[in-house]
Amino acid sequence: MALTLAGLAAERPLGLRVLTGEAGLDRPIGWVHPTELTDPQAFLEGGELLLTTGLALDEETAPAYVRRLVAAGVAGLGFGIGLSHESVPHSLVATAAEVGLPVLEVPRKTPFIAITRAVSRAVAADEYATTVRIGHAQQELTRTAVGKGGPAGVLRKLAKLVDGWVLLFDRTTVTEAAPASARAYGASLREELERLQTGTRVVSLGDDEVVLQTLDTGARRVLTVGTPEPLDTAGRHIVNTAVSVLSLALEQDRAQAAAREALRTGLVELLVGGQAELALRVLTATGARPPESPWSVLVFRGSPAARRKLLGALDGELFAARSGASVVVFGPASVAEPAAEAALRIGGLHGGVAGPVAARDFAAGFEQAELAAQAAEAEDKLLISAAEHTGRGLLSLIDPAVAQAFAGGLLAPLRHHDETGRGDLVESLRCWLEHHGHWDVAAARLGVHRHTLRNRITKAQELLGRDLDSPGVRAELWVALQT
């Protein structure tokens, strides 16, 4: 931490006495500059402690001299007594008090070189501490980036190192935040992000100073660091280090993600090509654990952006891969519900589900799921099962009058219940069957709570007197609901 005027005045061996400007004693001393010039502005950078014996000053010239020092941005004035002046001129002290310039009286026994040495030692110690802090921070950020922490860990570490908050943007969308509450700043920075093409931009957000720095990555990403006080030299170096390690980590992640995606696509191609044994062997060799068969196979269609979001949402949770203009998901029967829920959240996706199928029959399941997905897309539905899609073809083989009579008799209890205004069992049953018995997805499509839907299906089962867990019963009901 830089030496301040107060810290210098507290060094007793120097014998300095504060005459005025107590409010400014917290100013850091950048350097010491002894001079007897009455106008030293041309030789000053600002932040210096100026030392003088007042050789060319008197009561008349001192006020203007003080004002010139303030204009030059000096931190304070050290006035040596016992040579040109027995005491500091009264007009100098009065003017300094008026303009807020700290004045330290330097006794005759204290040479100016002693003050210079004291400041020099403090500056050297501060620079050393800064170097150590930067080195320590670089090590911590690098270890975090190459370890398990990844980019998110780097952001958390950076926020602690600069005692502030950090955001990582992909274009104008916050992808990571440290702490999590910092996400709230994202919307306020959107306009600044749109202005920033490359490089660095410094803005104010409330009481914080915010540094926006673009990363050297294929995608347009921006690191944003907010602190209550402007970053010091060490802080700026630490942020630059974070920019470097984040750029490398994110590019590495992107390359690994592309490799994983290519591998999964290749595995699906092997399965579709009837080489299930080879596909499973490759999957095992990469360290992954193949899903237990038999498998449910899901195919989702939609815009490229929606498919990309679905892959991202399912990454690490389920086996999902690109296949042409579709996303393929397969695994145990339980994969259907989370995959459908993710597709519902993203929107703009339509899927088909087939199975269960053995690994060697994957190609047939994939084809059935793809046909069902095309039907779902045509009807603007989230998910249609292959069984349901195939069942529709059977309706063409049934005489319409027979089908209507069958449907009328089977569904009569439900329609009578609905006509009396006591519920909406027919539409609830249709939606529930349409979504393969997935409670959350069907409830969301109906706009009701899943418990409400469960109550309705339970009531329908009571009125029908049939077991709705039976595949045969479900098939009959679906045929009846289609007529």
Notes on the protein architecture:
This protein has four domains: 5-110, HprK N-terminal domain-like (Udp-n-acetylmuramoylalanyl-d-glutamate--2,6- Diaminopimelate Ligase, Chain: A, domain 1, 3-Layer(aba) Sandwich); 146-251, Beta-Lactamase; 291-393, Reverse transcriptase/Diguanylate cyclase domain (Alpha-Beta Plaits, 2-Layer Sandwich); 398-482, Orthogonal Bundle (Arc Repressor Mutant, subunit A). 51% of the residues lie in helices and 18% in strands. It has 17 helices and 15 strands. The protein has helices at residues 5-9, 62-72, 90-99, 112-146, 150-162, 190-195, 233-272, 276-285, 304-314, 336-346, 362-378, 386-395, 400-419, 425-434, 439-446, 450-464, 471-482, and strands at 17-20, 31-34, 48-52, 76-80, 103-106, 165-170, 173-178, 200-205, 208-214, 221-227, 295-302, 319-323, 326-331, 349-357, 383-385. The protein has a five-stranded mixed sheet with strand order 1-5-4-3-2.
CATH topology of the largest domain: Udp-n-acetylmuramoylalanyl-d-glutamate--2,6- Diaminopimelate Ligase, Chain: A, domain 1
Task: Please identify the structural class as seen in this structure.
Answer: alpha/beta
Number of helices: 17
Total strands: 15
User: Which term fits the overall shape?
Assistant: elongated
In total, the number of domains comes to 4
CATH superfamily of the largest domain: HprK N-terminal domain-like
Task: Tell me the distance between the termini.
Answer: 82 Å
Mean pLDDT over all positions: 86
Low confidence ranges? none
* Widest sheet: strand ordering: 1-5-4-3-2
Domain Purine catabolism PurC-like: 15-122
Organism: Amycolatopsis rifamycinica
Domain PucR C-terminal helix-turn-helix: 425-482
InterPro entries: CdaR-like_regulators, PucR_C-HTH_dom, PucR_C-HTH_sf, PucR_dom
